Predict the structure.
Amino acid sequence: MSKDDVQKSGSIFVFSDELAGFDFGENHYFKPERATKTYELCNRYGVINHPWMKILRPKSIDRSLLTLFHEKEYIEILEKASHGEVSLEILERGIGTIDNPIIQGIFEWSLKVAGGTHKTLRHLLDGDALVAFNPLGGFHHARRGHAEGFCYINDIAIAVKAALQKSPDMKLAYIDIDAHHGNGVQEAFYHDPRVFFISIHETGKTLYPWSGSEVEIGEGDGKGFTVNIPLESGSDDEVYSFAFDNTIPPLIESFSPYVIIAELGADTLISDPLTHLKLTNNGYMRAVKKIIELCPRILALGGGGYDLYRTARCWTLAWSALNRLEPIDEFAGLVGGMMFGPEMEVGSLYDHPYLNKGEDKEKAMLEAQRVVEYIRKKIFPIHGI
């Protein structure tokens, strides 16, 4: 797919000042304002105002679609919590915890975020655009009847199930490069061969949600259509690229999906306060560009990323790559500066190169080699590779 193809078909950036301004609380790690910082940085680098681009301001999803994935009782409980009701039943559903506090209006906010993901995927399937990015979306931890991991409504599972409801024979791929395992999405499609689920993440031995082992490969008709690539803490760009390159491209090429939904969480970066991987955005962007090469239609979602400004840099680079643009800072050294990291002093969105060393790096590479070998032996033959 070329730049001309994108310009001809169009691209969609999902953004809303209202949604980006929603507050999870002063001490909460999840900051929707990441989307605002990304939008501002895209403007600064001249990659958001081209004629083929559309800014989509999301509206609430049709509530009837929520039960394509979530339990009806859970949705009712979440709505009550959003309106200030507190009960033991609400707490049993994971609402009212440190990660998922009871927030006034969280239900209505989540409906609009899910609406953005659903509407954007529908646009791609209908041919209204070729690529899209919803930095507000990507709540991959929400379970059928339980909130967790900052996630209340699983916009991904709902959007994909709605697409399959309309086109039952369609093949979709979900690639999750967030540092956390995409457990909620895996749950949704663990038995479904129409959705190829792939998650490359920090091992559950050291990071929430404590799942995503390589032995989780799907069940029934879905066996072999769930692929987990757990990485040891300390994995850097080199380890990450080795694991990614030797598993994901051949599997996706064999599957040949109509659309890839990509969770582009930026919490794999060495500076992220919640995780233990050691990537720079050079390694992150290498993976993003590989994903873009695998399918002409891409719906990218934000997901994690808790270093606010470096996440904005990652997502600006990702949006640029989706549109085949090279971001150029016309105000280098004048505005923004160190706010987005030291590289911004000279106008570059990219990090300085970094590779881990010593026993930490050796352990990470050996474990990545073991996981890759397992996938090649257990899953590749299922797909004729």
About this structure: The chain has a mean pLDDT of 95. The first helix runs from residue 3 to 9. Strands lie at 11-14, 53-56, 131-134, 172-176, 195-202, 226-231, 259-263, 298-301.
